[in-house]
């Protein structure tokens, strides 16, 4: 999962998140950065990064702890294609999920597969925000 992933679809409430960057440093120090567009009432927008420390729980499962307010959540890889181009990730309680891809466009067949896998695993795909 290391590297930058483009958010292609997300659970409601996470529509501003554009990318997730997984940093798997040596020595067990992992982190995930959520990059989102923050806009004010006058229409001015800027990129805002929200950093989380990622404690590995098992292969492709992490407990994320916010670097700013100590809130935490679990994030699991539900599915990833053989070429590591598209992934479906989410929380085990189905409240949060993302469809990620290495590229911002293309791969419609893989995006469809990710949607189907998330739906099969109990995620509400009707409410998903697609980019």
TrEMBL record:
<dbReference type="InterPro" id="IPR000566">
    <property type="entry name" value="Lipocln_cytosolic_FA-bd_dom"/>
</dbReference>
<protein>
    <submittedName>
        <fullName>Lipocalin</fullName>
    </submittedName>
</protein>
<feature type="domain" description="Lipocalin/cytosolic fatty-acid binding">
    <location>
        <begin position="68"/>
        <end position="129"/>
    </location>
</feature>
<dbReference type="InterPro" id="IPR012674">
    <property type="entry name" value="Calycin"/>
</dbReference>
<dbReference type="Pfam" id="PF08212">
    <property type="entry name" value="Lipocalin_2"/>
</dbReference>
